[in-house]
């Protein structure tokens, strides 16, 4: 089954996977304070605004570090609102609502999640017909297609690298790359899986 891009978040770990039929020549790289999705060296040039973006940022908030991750340019305003002290629910809801679903041929939803240092985990999506933001107590997935409402997901990973690998290797079709994040005693760790 093809579900497109998806996020999974649980109380301790989270992951984001790029799945694509149209733009498979992408990878995730670490730069500055973010993990960034972008074209590989052999990718065809495109002016599509949805191909390159920060997919994961860890920011310092008034209550400690928080990770924000998702499928597009909305990750940056979510992270910025968290830094300003917005509650994670408000940062997700306001940013998703402001940027709205992607105005492409498929009305692609925007999806995102936050994982707080305080143990709070939230997941959200904005579709053409709804804005959903939920607190999660167990690993939960939301995807751009087919699984576009938050639903329980069997994520067994206990670290960032394991989370990135697990979602990359999941049976959903057309895996391109993945990022993982996990809460540790020393803050957050991140990992990248580019299928190499």
From TrEMBL:
Enzyme Commission code: 3.5.4.10
Its keywords, alphabetically, are:
Hydrolase, Purine biosynthesis
Top-rank taxon, per record: Archaea
Q: Where is the Inosine monophosphate cyclohydrolase-like domain?
A: 2-186
Known catalytic reactions: IMP + H2O = 5-formamido-1-(5-phospho-D-ribosyl)imidazole-4-carboxamide
Q: What class of enzyme is it?
A: hydrolase
Does Cytoplasm appear among the keywords? no
In Gene Ontology terms, what is one molecular function of this protein?
A: IMP cyclohydrolase activity
Q: Does the keyword Hydrolase apply?
A: yes
Which pathway does UniProt place it in?
Purine metabolism; IMP biosynthesis via de novo pathway; IMP from 5-formamido-1-(5-phospho-D-ribosyl)imidazole-4-carboxamide: step 1/1
Instruction: State the Gene Ontology BP annotations.
Output: 'de novo' IMP biosynthetic process
Stated family: Belongs to the archaeal IMP cyclohydrolase family.
Q: NCBIfam families attached here?
A: PRK04151.1, purO_arch
Question: Tell me, what does this protein do in biology?
Answer: Catalyzes the cyclization of 5-formylamidoimidazole-4-carboxamide ribonucleotide to IMP.
Designated name of the protein: IMP cyclohydrolase
Q: Which source organism does the UniProt entry give?
A: Natronococcus occultus SP4
**Upper taxonomic lineage:** Archaea, Methanobacteriati, Methanobacteriota, Stenosarchaea group, Halobacteria
Q: Which gene encodes it?
A: purO
């Amino acid at each position: 089954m093809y579900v497109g891009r998806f996020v999974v978040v649980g109380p301790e770990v989270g992951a984001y996977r790029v799945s694509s039929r149209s733009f498979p020549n992408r990878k995730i790289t670490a730069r500055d304070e973010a993990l960034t999705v972008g074209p590989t060296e052999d990718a065809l040039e495109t002016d599509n605004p949805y191909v390159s973006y920060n997919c994961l940022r860890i920011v310092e908030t008034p209550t400690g570090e928080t990770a924000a991750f998702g499928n597009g340019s909305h990750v940056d305003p979510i992270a910025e609102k968290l830094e300003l002290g917005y509650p994670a629910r408000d940062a997700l809801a306001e940013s998703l609502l402001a940027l709205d679903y992607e105005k492409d041929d498929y009305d692609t939803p925007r999806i995102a999640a936050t994982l707080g240092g305080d143990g709070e985990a939230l997941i959200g999506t904005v579709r053409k017909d709804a804005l959903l933001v939920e607190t999660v107590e167990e690993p939960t997935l939301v995807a751009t297609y087919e699984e576009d409402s938050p639903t329980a997901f069997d994520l067994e990973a206990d670290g960032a690298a394991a989370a990135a690998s697990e979602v990359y290797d999941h049976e959903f079709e057309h895996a391109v790359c993945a990022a993982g994040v996990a809460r540790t005693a020393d803050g957050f760790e991140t990992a990248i899986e580019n299928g190499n």
